[in-house]
């Protein structure tokens, strides 16, 4: 196990020594109890709970570890430790939830306050689903960003070399990162979408302008919004593996899901409409009624999933052809 720490300087600065060693241990099928024992053997038990700040986690002369058969469960456990042992994971998810629910509350309160002054035509054109889930458009960027450092942070610190030394099957590493981060994103994304919807509808109900979750459309929109958070995160993970630089991958993600759908308006008709339909566009997912010129919610999600699959397949191809 000590041999697996030869590259000990390649550590995420926000992770404790114990968590770093535990992540490597689990990827090799080594039990958690062995971590404290080994840290004690190399004289690092006193700093096990400290966030890594440059001290060595193992003697530079440690012999290489023998090859180990890596089980899928151990690899997933290792990636789970990496994800939940850094504060940025929680801060990013909290930011996404606060933005989405905050915008839903603001929109619901504003529309409820002015409802009495709206004309019948304006009331008929009001879309309570878009009002409830509009904040998820910004939340998708936060969830996409969550997927980027899942791999770029290891390239930045150099820990990716340790990871690939412990798990030579690089595509399995990429799959494990996508699976663990994706599971968390889907869970939190769904919870955020439901919270945003229920918050906005509670405020709109005071003006009798809301819509019940059991009505045709709302449940589909809420579930679709949660799924789109997963799509954004998978695109972020794929771009992170392709570009291998956090700022560059986040910039590419922002351009793809936030900027390009807005730039198509400068393209001459009818090309702008055709291109807009096949971009990762979030609006059709949350609209109560079909929008002219845009795809249906189901096909929109399928298109987004296609972008996610394309980036991940490209990443899986490149990850085996380039040095870490």
Quick overview of this protein structure:
The chain is mostly helical. Helix content is 66%, strand content 0%. It has 2 domains: 1-74, no CATH class; 86-319, no CATH class.
Rg over alpha carbons: 23 Å
Taken in chain order, the helices and strands follow as HHHHHHHHHHHHHHH
Q: Which class do the helix and strand fractions yield? A: mainly alpha
Contiguous uncertain segments of 5+ residues: 1-8, 57-63
What portion of residues belong to β-strands? under 5%
Helix percent band: 55-70%
User: Whole-Å distance between the termini?
Assistant: 21 Å
Average pLDDT, rounded to a whole number, is 84
Q: How many domains in all?
A: 2
- Shape verdict: elongated
Tally of individual helices: 15
Number of strands: 0
Biggest sheet descriptor: none
How would you describe this structure to a colleague?
With 324 residues, the protein is an all-alpha fold. It has helices at 17-27, 33-41, 72-84, 87-114, 120-125, 128-133, 136-147, 149-157, 159-166, 170-204, 218-243, 246-263, 271-277, 283-286, 297-319. It has 2 domains: 1-74, no CATH class; 86-319, no CATH class. It contains 15 helices and no strands. Helix 1 (17-27) packs antiparallel against helix 3, helix 7 runs antiparallel to helix 10 (170-204) and helix 11 crosses helix 12. The longest helix is centred in the middle third of the chain and has 35 residues, at 170-204. It starts with 16 loop residues before the first helix and ends in a 5-residue tail after the last helix. Mean pLDDT is 84; it is low at 1-8 and 57-63.
Compile the SSE list and pairings.
Blueprint: H1 17-27, H2 33-41, H3 72-84, H4 87-114, H5 120-125, H6 128-133, H7 136-147, H8 149-157, H9 159-166, H10 170-204, H11 218-243, H12 246-263, H13 271-277, H14 283-286, H15 297-319
């Amino acid at each position: 196990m000590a041999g697996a720490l030869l590259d000990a300087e390649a550590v995420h600065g926000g992770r404790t020594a114990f968590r770093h060693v535990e992540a490597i241990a689990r990827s090799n099928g080594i039990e958690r109890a062995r971590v404290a024992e080994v840290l004690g053997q190399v004289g690092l038990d006193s700093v096990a709970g400290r966030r890594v700040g440059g001290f060595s986690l193992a003697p530079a002369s440690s012999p290489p570890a023998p090859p180990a058969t890596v089980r899928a469960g151990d690899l997933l456990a290792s990636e789970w430790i990496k994800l939940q042992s850094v504060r940025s994971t929680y801060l990013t998810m909290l930011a996404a939830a606060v933005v989405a629910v905050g915008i839903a509350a603001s929109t619901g309160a504003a529309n409820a306050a002015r409802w009495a002054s709206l004309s019948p035509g304006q009331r008929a054109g009001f879309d309570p689903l878009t009002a409830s889930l509009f904040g998820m458009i910004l939340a998708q960027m936060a969830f996409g960003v969550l997927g980027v450092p899942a791999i770029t942070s290891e390239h930045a610190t150099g820990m990716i070399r340790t990871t690939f030394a412990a798990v030579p099957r690089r595509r399995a590493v990429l799959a494990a990162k996508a699976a663990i981060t994706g599971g968390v994103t889907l869970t939190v994304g769904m919870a955020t979408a439901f919270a945003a919807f229920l918050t906005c509808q509670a405020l709109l109900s005071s003006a009798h302008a809301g819509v019940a979750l059991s009505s045709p459309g709302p449940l589909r929109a809420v579930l679709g919004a949660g799924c789109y958070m997963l799509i954004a995160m998978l695109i972020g993970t794929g771009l992170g593996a392709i570009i291998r630089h956090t700022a560059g991958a986040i910039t590419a993600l922002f351009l793809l899901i936030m900027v390009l759908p807005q730039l198509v308006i400068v393209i001459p008709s009818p090309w702008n409409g055709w291109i807009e339909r096949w971009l990762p566009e979030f609006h059709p997912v949350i609209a109560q009624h079909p929008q002219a010129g845009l795809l249906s919610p189901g096909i929109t999600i399928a298109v987004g999933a296609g972008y996610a699959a394309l980036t991940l397949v490209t990443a899986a191809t490149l990850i085996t052809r380039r040095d870490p």
